[in-house]
């Protein structure tokens, strides 16, 4: 097994390589506006650090969000393209699950990432490997009763201390955590979800309501 993991669902552009035993190389850069510019060089850097060629990769792991439309599609399109070019499977992993796994907490807690528009993407967990709720997007104040008293991780939790007073790092997901989680699940024979995006809401760019179609005469 040689898994190439990547995620662009948060401001972090993160890549890692897992050899079936553990992560052998990784890279993470935080820049919410340069996902497309940073991702491919990060992949090249991780492969070079590990001393392997791209064609040695046996599978791709991609963070499927939830996340903003523009950033998320960069990672998923790159993963799909690499999988097609290499002829290897592409596995999806919920980005929130990767954060939960990295947090390594034993009791109930919450993962919340920044969804912008004064909202968070969030889910509740029983432990670092067990998600209790589907990912959702809400205003922090609207979910305060559901997360009251629970520890929280992620940038969304750190942004809203009134709702998440027990918030702490990790702030952003790491591909190393995604790779370890995916490798663990695959080793147990679990089926990972398809690499399809969890947008949870429509993109900012939409066709105007009064848009008129111009037809040639």
Backbone CA Rg? 18 Å
Strand count, sense and barrel status of the largest sheet are:
6 strands, mixed
Residue stretches low in confidence (pLDDT < 50, at least 5 long) are none
Helix content: 25-40%
Mean pLDDT metric: 93
Q: How far is the N terminus from the C terminus?
A: 59 Å
The proportion of residues in beta strands is: 25-35%
Order of helices and strands: EEEHEHEHEEEEHEHEH
Main structural class: alpha/beta
Subunit organisation of the chains: single chain
Count of helical stretches: 6
Shape: globular
Number of strands: 11
Write a structural description:
It holds the Pfam family TsaD. InterPro entries: ATPase_NBD (IPR043129), Gcp-like_dom (IPR000905), T6A_TsaB (IPR022496). There is one protein chain. This protein is an alpha/beta fold. Helix content is 30%, strand content 25%. It has six helices and eleven strands. The strands form two sheets. Strands 6, 7, 8, 9, 10 and 11 form a six-stranded mixed sheet that branches. β1 (3-7) and β2 form a beta hairpin. α1 crosses α2 (69-86) and α3 crosses α6 (175-187). The chain is globular. It starts with a strand and ends in a 30-residue tail after the last helix. The mean pLDDT is 93.
């Amino acid at each position: 097994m040689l898994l190439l993991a990547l995620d662009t669902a948060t401001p972090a552009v993160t890549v890692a390589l897992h050899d079936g035993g553990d992560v052998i190389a990784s890279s993470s850069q935080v820049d919410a506006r340069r996902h497309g510019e940073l991702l491919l060089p990060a992949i090249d850097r991780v492969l070079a650090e590990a001393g392997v060629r791209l064609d040695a990769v046996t599978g791709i792991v991609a963070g499927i969000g939830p996340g903003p439309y523009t950033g998320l599609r960069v990672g998923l399109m790159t993963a799909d393209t690499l999988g097609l070019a290499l002829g290897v499977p592409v596995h999806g992993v919920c980005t929130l699950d990767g954060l939960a796994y990295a947090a390594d907490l034993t009791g109930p807690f919450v993962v919340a990432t920044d969804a912008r528009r004064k909202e968070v993407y969030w889910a509740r967990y029983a432990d670092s490997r067990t998600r209790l709720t589907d990912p959702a997007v809400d205003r922090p104040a609207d979910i305060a009763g559901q997360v009251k008293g629970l520890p929280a991780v992620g940038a969304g939790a750190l942004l809203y201390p009134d709702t998440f007073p027990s918030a702490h790092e990790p702030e952003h997901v790491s591909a190393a955590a995604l790779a370890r989680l995916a490798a663990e699940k695959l080793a147990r024979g679990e089926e990972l979800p398809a690499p399809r995006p969890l947008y949870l809401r429509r993109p900012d760019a939409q066709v105007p309501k009064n848009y008129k179609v111009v037809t040639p005469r």
